[in-house]
Write a structure and sequence with these properties.
Layout (H helix, E strand, L loop, with lengths): L1 E2 L5 E2 L6 H14 L4 H13 L11 E10 L4 E7 L4 E3 L2 E3 L7 H13 L7 E2 L6 E7 L10 E11 L12 E5 L5 H17 L1
Parallel strand pairs: 3-9
Antiparallel strand pairs: 1-2, 3-6, 4-5, 4-10, 7-9, 8-9
Helix pairs in contact: 1-2
InterPro entries: NUDIX_hydrolase-like_dom_sf (IPR015797), NUDIX_hydrolase_dom (IPR000086)
Protein name: Nudix hydrolase domain-containing protein
Length: 194
């Protein structure tokens, strides 16, 4: 329950397994060659407990922001716990009512970027990936899998992000893997679309 501005209480509307299945199937429709990447996620979502909860094992969802600027640089954050650079984002909160909304909330918390400054490319993720996560004893997390839903968000200028040692901008040409391939394709197609 949450308390509204006039004092009334309302039930929390959190992301359901059905919403995850819908997003995953929409993603597969747009990326038919990637059915294998989401098949297990769909099965777990249909048959298991809430896939959006952080403690759901052997896998659960995470949402990540793929923030790019007009000069096609990608924002990354320093993950001090895992000692690596990664896309901003993470676990879905109980109060999140959509996957894209979770991504925007987490981005704001991690970077201070106002969601109103961003233009989402789509309500569907640009990329979905099953990412093995090593155990993190300090967080009492066993080995598990994150199904990362990665949303493409356009930011008009890097100046909208405060200078922070925990943030960096990377040219999309330097982004490896399937995500890098998709971003390079988007950057080539961008002049024709905008």
């Amino acid at each position: 329950m949450w308390i509204g501005p006039t004092g009334g209480t309302f039930p929390l509307v959190s992301v359901t397994n059905n919403a995850v299945v819908s997003a995953a199937l929409g993603y597969v429709e747009a990326n038919p060659a990637e059915l294998e990447a989401v098949r297990d996620l769909v099965i777990l979502s249909l048959l298991g407990p809430r896939i959006t909860l952080r403690h759901t094992l052997p896998a659960h969802l995470a949402c990540r922001a793929v923030v790019v600027t007009p000069d096609w640089h990608l924002l990354q954050v320093d993950d001090a716990v895992r000692s690596c650079w990664q896309l901003p984002g993470g676990h879905i909160a109980e109060e999140d009512s959509s996957l894209l909304g979770s991504t925007l909330r987490q981005l704001r918390c991690l970077t201070g970027i106002d969601p109103d400054a961003l233009r989402p490319e789509s309500t569907l993720p640009l990329d979905v990936d099953a990412v093995p996560v090593e155990p993190v004893p300090s967080l009492a997390e066993p080995e598990h899998v994150h199904y990362d839903f990665r949303y493409l968000l356009h930011l008009p200028s890097r100046d909208l992000v405060a200078g922070d040692a925990g943030l960096r901008w990377v040219p999309v040409d330097d982004v490896p893997g399937r995500l890098g391939t998709k971003l390079r394709r988007c950057s080539r197609d961008a002049p024709a679309l905008r």
